[in-house]
Amino acid sequence: MTSTNPGLRELKKQETRQLISDHATRLFIERGFEETTIADIAEAARVAKKTVTNYFARKEDLALDQHEEFTAGLARTVAARGVGESALAALRAAFMRAAAGHDPVIGFSGQPFARMIVDSPTLTARLRELHETREEALAATLTAETAAEPDDITPRAVATQLGAAHRLLFGEALRLTVEGHDNPHIAATVTRAAERVFDLLEPTLGSYAIRT
């Protein structure tokens, strides 16, 4: 019995976290992010304000609750690339899979949620921070994967270009969602856009960080 308790406690924590997140998202969409308070969320979820802040250090994290996966995603993809695969090729393939799967991490969110983000100065600012954090994580991984010297600017330059490409494509997905297009249309549009973007990067980055 004792051995199962940690698992049960973890499950309860996950359920509580999801409950808080669900109520927060509903309130943000109904009232607007700026207008909704932590107290409102705690009341809706029937938990203490302290419980909300224990699970979510920042109010923005209640809305962008996949931020950890988002910021680590590009770096993880590059670190997991196959033999003979470049960083660009790995990221290109991963993006195409994500677009086909309507993955929220690349911008698929539904119109109410997307509009909530673009209407909130706080959330748009936080999203910019997350894009920057994602680029930094990618640069660190590229530095390690290519055994670059600490003062070598190349990994950071590459991460900036690859990060900018993903930032642009995320923005396209968000824009199309706000305009009311359905997911199949958005997926087809951003896939074509991604092909163009990655093709433009291919001459410069196609042979960079190929796993041997």
UniProtKB/TrEMBL annotation:
Residues 14-74 form the HTH tetR-type domain. Keywords: DNA-binding, Transcription, Transcription regulation. Pfam families: TetR_N. Residues 37-56 bind DNA. One of its GO terms (molecular function) is DNA-binding transcription factor activity. InterPro entries: Homeodomain-like_sf, HTH-type_TetR-like_transc_reg, HTH_TetR. This is AcrR family transcriptional regulator.
